[in-house]
Amino acid sequence: ARVALLMSIVLYEMNSRSSSWVWLGSAVRIAQDIGLHMESGPWSTVEREMRRRLWWGIYAWDRLLSLELGKPISIHDQDCGVDLPCPVDEQFIAEGARLPEGSNTNSLLATIHVVRSIGQLTKTLRSPIVSPATLDIFDRHFNACLATFPIHFHPKSDSLLDPSSLAPIIYLQNARYILHRHNISPYCPADVRFPALDQCLIIAQDTARVLSRCMHSPPPVGPTSVYGGTRNDWQTALASSASTMLCTHIWRCLLILIFREDFAAASVCVQACKVIGDHHIAMASCGRYVAFFLRILLDRLRRNDSIPIDRDEEMLAYVSGDMQSTPTGSWIWQGSETGTQLENVPSQSPPYVSSAPGGGSRTSNDAEWEGWDWIEGTLQYLAGELRQRSYDRRDVPPVRIAAPALKIEESASSTSRSSAPTSRMTIANII
């Protein structure tokens, strides 16, 4: 069971989502077959605790992966009768062992509190609209989970954080974000969509604050230090501990921050993405999508589009990101937006192909993109344009910033929105 769980985690980190899901199913079945899901046997203290930790690790991974992939959960609470694991690290688990005073609790317990609601959350996300009453119930539960965290993990805290300890708070923030993001679909009326965007923005801003508190040199490790190890610098710690879920959550937050013009918080997320960079396979795809999104925004700015961006259905579809890859959240593949109409769009132009080293070729999915430095410069330009509009309202002479230059040749169809079929195919290609 332990090997199957590790295989599932490794495959997910390698971006093999389907294989990861299959291996998770194997881990669940093996664990149930050897009785990890119930208290049994005359086990020693260490063996009993290890069985509990393995079971709850599988339980937590089942919830997290189900939420990310839009899949049903494999473990139901009524079939589980195992006590919670001990909230300390493994080295303190022994017969008669004493817990050192002031030591930190294990992050697994905090993660379990967060993921226990995900089973009901995945069922709730099957509905086209999440009602305000249901949102309130989940928000109160997530706030209760946050109250069980050490105080330095609270988004409003000013305490410094170790980047390698971010997993539990990121799981919580990600669940909150996915819950509220569900209501930005066109199935929801305006009085539901706009508050959903507001909540997504608040969650993204909280995430940016958490990330900003990781961007510092680690203090000397003491008995009450938040740091769990001796890293040379925060960049190394963040890059080495970044997971796929952290990368995708930062990406989702970055999209809504740019969409709502909070460029200061967006710059914090970009800084984290630059540090992770090539250390994680998912970050290049996230960066390519953000660059595409910024090109669309720049084109919209140059055309001086009169449609409010909050009411621009194409922009909202881009902001939804990987929501379109789930069967319960997608809307661009349904009805008039896709189906027969997309199937009838002629594919006359070949995919973009660029020469690769060795005389080979590669499709646009593997092509080079502008890079995080270009994204950072573009955010500075957009922030300057935002100040320009503010100056115009007050009749104050502005300081203009030159528009960023693209490093990659773009065809007219990649940024033009004059053709609806082309726009739809752009969404499909990006996803």
Question: TL;DR of this structure?
Answer:
The protein is mainly alpha-helical. Helix content is 55%, strand content 1%.
Low-confidence stretches: 222-231, 336-366, 408-431
Q: Let me know the number of strands.
A: 2
Termini separation comes to 33 Å
Radius of gyration: 23 Å
Secondary-structure-based class equals mainly alpha
Report the β-strand fraction as a percent range. under 5%
Q: Indicate the percent of residues in helices.
A: 40-55%
Shape: globular
Query: How would you sum up the major sheet?
Result: 2 strands, antiparallel
Number of helices: 17
**Helix/strand order:** HHHHHHHHHHHHHHEEHHH
Biggest sheet: strand arrangement: 1-2
The residue-averaged pLDDT reads 80
Task: Please give a structural write-up.
It is globular and about 75 Å long. It has a two-stranded antiparallel sheet. It has helices at residues 2-13, 17-33, 45-69, 107-115, 118-124, 132-148, 167-181, 190-212, 234-241, 244-259, 263-276, 281-303, 313-320, 340-343, 372-394, 412-415, 420-430; strands at residues 353-355, 361-363. The chain contains 17 helices and 2 strands. It has 2 domains: 1-84; 107-342 and 363-430, no CATH class. It starts with a helix and ends with a helix. α3 packs across α4 (107-115), α8 crosses α11 and α12 packs parallel to α15 (372-394). It has 431 residues and is mainly α.
